[in-house]
């Protein structure tokens, strides 16, 4: 039985590692996926048919360098699997244990809320910089002349880059107040949909936590009703031993294998997303994007930092006394997230 527990732990670790790597390196050309793919290609290329090599390259390019709905479908599949198990087994057991119907309906309410923000993340324009809008967009934010410099044009879009914008290679467009490209919503996160992305993350965390609490409460009641905590067993040497935590966990795996499997997955995903949500909440409070956070720590290539231009040398010197250059105070920062600055507004510092 302990071998099964070990396999389950390995499974959860592998799944979370994959989710973390996909979230961290999606849309980036220099990432471990490309390095691993190059290494594997060199090793197996002599023994692999050409058609299989072309197909493998097409799959990797489709997943990580082009917009694709695959991760949206995967998101729906994982979510549907969790809710199917919760509805099929946990819901009935909880009703037998007199859990209130209101408490059991909360996860479904959270699912509706989450789906609403998920849809808005997918469909809302994140703030695409176009030829028609660029002349007004450059006035929304001042250039800090550290991360963003005046007069710099996007080599792909052939447009002057407004401060805080960035070109997304996956979407092939420049995005205002660019944060990152999220494969799970198949869209960039920028000025136009950051508020929906934050609310989406919060609702997913609340949904996972509520399901975990209801499921854990059900299993706890099952253990208490069975009297396992007062039970004992005969070990391999013939000695009577009290049933400890490991014995209880093994019993739960044997009695409710799918429920325990689902609970473990939901708990670990919750902690992963909770950390990610806290990070983005912090960025919202200080008015910084994840793109700016990485850039400010030198975690980007040197080509992302252009050589100072004449405008940089002769223009007004920005005030860098503040740690977060674009911060407008707590309420101002939150207001900017939920009510993005428009092209007719100018942001003062």
TrEMBL record:
Q: A GO BP term, please?
A: protein targeting to membrane
Task: List, alphabetically, the InterPro entries matched.
Answer: Palmitoyltrfase_DHHC, PFA4/ZDH16/20/ERF2-like
Q: Where is the Palmitoyltransferase DHHC domain?
A: 153-296
Q: Name one GO molecular function term.
A: protein-cysteine S-palmitoyltransferase activity
List the keywords (alphabetical).
Answer: Acyltransferase, Cell membrane, Endoplasmic reticulum, Golgi apparatus, Lipoprotein, Membrane, Palmitate, Transferase, Transmembrane, Transmembrane helix
Give the residue spans that cross the bilayer. 6-23, 70-88, 100-122, 197-220, 259-286
Tell me where it mainly resides.
Answer: membrane
Membrane topology category: Multi-pass membrane protein
Q: Which PROSITE patterns match?
A: DHHC
Q: What EC number(s) has UniProt assigned to this enzyme?
A: 2.3.1.225
Question: What's one GO-annotated cellular component?
Answer: endoplasmic reticulum membrane
Kindly state which reaction or reactions the protein catalyses. L-cysteinyl-[protein] + hexadecanoyl-CoA = S-hexadecanoyl-L-cysteinyl-[protein] + CoA
Spell out the subcellular localization from the entry: Cell membrane; Endoplasmic reticulum membrane; Golgi apparatus membrane
Enzyme's top EC category? transferase
UniProt note: domains: The DHHC domain is required for palmitoyltransferase activity.
Family classification: Belongs to the DHHC palmitoyltransferase family.
- Tell me what this protein is called: Palmitoyltransferase
> Organism, per UniProt?
Cyprinodon variegatus (Sheepshead minnow)
Lineage, uppermost ranks: Eukaryota, Metazoa, Chordata, Craniata, Vertebrata
